[in-house]
Amino acid sequence: MRSLFDVARECLAADSIESKLSLTHAAASLWRAGELSLEPCGVVEDIALPGRPARPVLVEPRSLPKRGFGSDLGRASFIHSIAHIEFNAIDLAWDAIYRFRDMPREYYSDWVSCADDEARHFEMLQARLAEYGYTYGDFDAHNGLWEMAVRTTSSVLIRMALVPRVLEARGLDVTPGMIVKLRSLGDDATADILEVILREEVAHVAAGSRWFAYACELEGVEPRSTFASLLKEYARGSLFGPFNVEARTAAGFDASELQLLDLISKI
């Protein structure tokens, strides 16, 4: 029986859109069928950059042009940016599996499911982008999500605090407004995709909350003060209100954490 960790590394290494998607869906099916083990497989490698297609070109975030939703080009660029986030999120889920080897089986089930969801989200966005006459890679993008993954390789506690609960949770805050704007412009097809993504991302962020709490208990640290410390060290300048209280509450944030996010976002 093959190891899930070995399969996760293969998914991370896949350097074409087609191979990353197909390997991800196949791995999720094998895991759900009980055909992958949790036996250790080789040394955990540092991954400076996972397998990617040659395009999009990765640039600094400030180099990306600002485009409104009012034109087809602007909406296509927006869809591309969300597709890029989802494509990165596939790798983030697989790395959370590959890198951290001593977690309960339910942890791996959560992140396999997440990788499978993110691949499906990407496929929906890719198809919508094609309807505008573009493909993934036609616009530049940035590497901020993976850069945070690299910064959090030392600890599953830090990873769970900062990738699902900070970077990915940002989508919970901004997506509702995007949906309203797209519907006002008559782009219900894109808005419908974002509705699916928003609903399922709540579960992904909730998984981050659940395993952050587990890691805190394992290490004997208090979750709220630990989260506050990590936000101040890693995420200052990366938090922007207003926060989606309803979605974040459903994703495992309590009132004190929401107050903390609001406070740090104003510093």
Any overview of this molecule?
By secondary structure, the protein is an all-alpha fold. The chain has a single domain (2-40, 65-265), classed as Ferritin (Up-down Bundle). It has 11 helices and 2 strands, in the order E-H-H-E-H-H-H-H-H-H-H-H-H. A two-stranded parallel sheet has the order 1-2. Helix 3 runs antiparallel to helix 4. The N and C termini lie far apart (51 Å). 43% of the residues are buried.
Which terms summarize this structure?
267 residues; mainly alpha; Ferritin; two-stranded parallel sheet; 11 helices; 2 strands
Summarize the model shown.
By secondary structure, the chain is mostly helical.
Structural class: mainly alpha
Low-confidence stretches: none
Q: Approximately what portion of the residues adopt beta-strand conformation?
A: under 5%
The coarse silhouette is globular
Largest sheet, in brief, is: 2 strands, parallel
Rounded to the nearest angstrom, the distance between the terminal CA atoms is 51 Å
Order of helices and strands: EHHEHHHHHHHHH
Top CATH class = Mainly Alpha
User: Structurally, how many domains make up the residues?
Assistant: 1
**Architecture, CATH level 2?**
Up-down Bundle
Mean pLDDT: 95
Radius of gyration: 18 Å
- The CATH topology label is Ferritin
Work out the helix count. 11
How many β-strand runs? 2
Residues in helix, %: 55-70%
Strands in their spatial order, largest beta sheet = 1-2
